[in-house]
Specification:
- By secondary structure, the chain is of the alpha/beta class.
- It has helices spanning about 25-30, 55-65, 70-80, 90-100, and strands at about 10-15, 45, 85, 105-110, 115-125, 130.
- A six-stranded mixed β-sheet has the order 3-2-4-1-5-6, with helices on both faces.
């Protein structure tokens, strides 16, 4: 039910040169299959904890699976030196990390953003993605 879901913003640092991000690129970044931005800078994806409602919503809508279902995938890549995205424990921690860490990308409650970060894409409560911030309702 969309009523209990939140609009999620996919965020990068304000000075990140990217102006947009496709859903396909976002999936590749979070599956650690795309590891560098177009300018050659390493991408540092951030997740929220596996039981966080935003993480559950992001994982099911963007990655097509739950965090617990992703364990086998990450265990298989571990021996190839590939780790899952780093986990931070709150929207605020993710925002600060993105603000302070070049090349990082995260997601957070769209209504908690400020000018420290730049949203590239929004995940609406109904599961659709948009690049139009006017569709976000923070009332």
């Amino acid at each position: 039910m969309a009523a209990d879901k939140t609009a999620i913003a996919v965020i990068v640092a304000s000075d990140n040169p990217n102006k947009s991000l496709s859903l396909g690129e976002l999936k590749l970044i979070y599956w650690r299959k795309k590891t560098y931005w177009a300018n050659g800078q390493r991408i540092h994806p951030i997740n929220l904890p596996s039981d966080n409602p935003l993480r559950l919503q992001f994982s099911s809508s963007i990655l097509g699976s739950t965090p617990s279902a992703q364990n086998d995938y990450w265990n298989g890549l571990y021996f190839h030196g590939i780790s899952p995205p780093h986990v931070l424990y709150s929207d605020e921690a993710a925002i600060r990390y993105v603000q302070e860490t070049a090349g990082s990308i995260a997601y957070a409650d769209a209504c908690k953003l400020d000018n420290r970060v730049k949203p590239l894409l929004w995940l609406l409560p109904n599961g659709e993605t948009t690049t139009n911030p006017a569709l976000i309702n923070c009332n």
